[in-house]
Write a structure and sequence with these properties.
Leucine-rich Repeat Variant; 2 strands; 198 residues
Length: 198
Amino acid sequence: MVVTPSSVRRWLAGWVIGCCAIVAGCDSWQSETPPPPSDVEVAERLAERDLDQAAQSGGPIESTSAAGATEDGSELMGGDASGRTSAAPSAGTALRSYNEWSLAETAADALGRIGTASVPELVRGLQHPNARVRRDVSRVLARIGPDAVIAVPELRQLLQDEDDEVRQAAARALGQIGPGAQSAVPDLIRLLESDQSP
């Protein structure tokens, strides 16, 4: 075989076209492949699976550690270091067996799973005289997310509640509702500007 400049150009052109085809194939493969789930998404899925497993078996949750698993802990039931429990504890709370949940935690989990159908009754709960109930109802509405849009006016009122945890839960719920809660933006900005915590 005689190597001439034209044969080298043909070989080089074929090689470049082949490389371009491989890159194009990789690009289309990557665009069709969803991005890997974040650590939070993986932990939420594991917590959900373990909670379902525990609810079905009635036994303790087996090995999944979800400390810090979700931003708001909405899928987790547990107590904090002081022994207090809530319907949606903060991140870092250890998982507990379904059998160890309080009645309020079980009810909050059920309402969150029922979703949209429970929202009208939950809206009434936002006016309850007990701050713990207002906080827990707000957390359930956060779990329901955009389908809880009818709760926006009452959640906006809770941004002025005397209890810090109620205000925080209401702000979180409005964020989880998303664009349907855009009327709360000025209230949330005021809350942001008035917060004196470090």
